[in-house]
Specification:
Length: 332
């Protein structure tokens, strides 16, 4: 983390475009926010666009804005995110997810720092610093011709790689301690630090969900631990044992607050009482397990399940007894 901090200090004061790469949950957004905060633009806007969450047909207008009447539903003119970020920083979160058509338009803004609103013909100049994150290997997307090479080069002026937590295990005790204090405050619990076995378990775990997973595990441990007790390995539930409920069921609403006992995932085969769940029931349990694991963040849950966010949204609406799918706002 110290190495990363030193790099950020150097890069922050420049105007350079930065591509932040790393697995999900490693802290890429935190890095982007730190870059902005330490930059000469700190007092100006920091605008984030989640490229994976905005529906494909809306992303162009999201980026560049639109004029009144540009398309059905464009009742008023609207400024895009690039305009809103004028003088400040824009974060293109999960930039790998944008379509080739929008990639071409994005390239132009990066090259010329100018754009036109959708349905407009006036050229608007913008002064923005661009940061982007991705949890895919963008060079591989380029090789597969899914991502434009020229755009990749424009974004990758300064590459910042945020390492997976398992590749920097010495950070674990420090982060765990920080989270323990934060969660103890949040939940009004007194904790006595970690037992030696607990720290050993934390350091040995592989953390596929990286810092986000660590934060969730510590939050759960703090809640499960008795007042004034040290945190032990049993409180961590790293082997999936801590969850006592068989699996979150339909009573778990998609907008429920943070799940603190993430179930391990739906188990194939008969239930404890010998009945075999239907495929639909199993799918439902699995979806709620994924949501719980992702703190109800739908973007991440969809990624974990390898389905589109729209599919996830439709299924949740189905479970909630609603029909039709796209009107509901994302829960993250
Ligand atoms: N070094 C750190 N210190 C404290 N908290 C951290 C650190 N790194 C990450 N976190 C926390 O971990 C969580 C995940 O971080 P962040 O959202 O930046 O990850 P990400 O790489 O953008 O993930 P994703 O690819 O899934 O969007 C956040 O709650 C963040 O505050
Ligand atoms: Mg992120």
């Amino acid at each position: 983390m110290e190495q990363l901090r030193a790099l950020l200090r150097k890069v922050a004061r420049t105007q350079a475009t930065v591509l932040i790469q790393g697995e999900s949950g490693t802290g890429k957004e935190l890095v982007a926010r730190a870059l902005h905060k330490q930059s000469p633009r700190a007092a100006a806007a920091f605008i984030k666009v989640n490229c994976a969450a905005v529906p494909e047909n809306l992303i162009e207008s999201e980026f560049f804005g639109h004029e009144k009447g540009a398309f059905t539903g464009a009742l008023n003119k609207r400024e895009g995110r690039f305009e809103l970020a004028h003088g400040g920083t824009i974060l293109l979160d999960e930039v790998s997810e944008i379509s080739p058509q929008v990639q071409a338009k994005l390239l132009r803004v990066l090259q010329e720092r100018e754009l036109e609103r959708v349905g407009g013909n006036r050229t608007i100049k913008v002064d923005v610093r661009v940061l982007a994150t991705t949890n895919r290997q963008l060079d591989q997307s380029v090789a597969r011709k899914e991502f434009r090479q020229d755009l990749y080069f424009r974004l990758n002026v300064v590459p910042v790689a945020v390492p997976a937590l398992r590749d920097r295990r010495t950070d674990i005790p420090f982060l765990a301690e920080q989270f323990m204090h934060r969660m103890a405050r949040k939940h009004g619990v007194r904790v006595q630090g970690f037992s030696k076995e607990c720290l050993a378990a934390l350091t040995a775990h592989d953390w596929p969900g990286n810092v986000r997973e660590l934060q969730n595990v510590i939050e759960r441990a703090v809640i499960l631990c008795g007042d004034g007790e040290p945190l032990g390995p049993d409180h961590l539930g790293l082997d999936g044992i801590v969850a006592t409920a068989p699996a979150a069921r339909a009573t778990h609403t998609p907008t429920a607050p943070t799940a603190t006992t993430a179930p391990p995932g739906a188990q194939a085969g008969p239930d404890a009482d010998g009945t075999l769940p239907t495929l639909a029931e199993l799918e439902k349990r699995h979806i709620f397990a994924a949501l719980a694991r992702c703190n109800d963040n739908r973007t991440h849950a969809a990624k974990l399940l390898d389905i589109s966010i729209r599919t996830l949204r439709n299924k949740l609406n189905e479970y909630a007894g609603k029909t039709g799918g796209d009107s509901e706002a994302d829960g993250d």
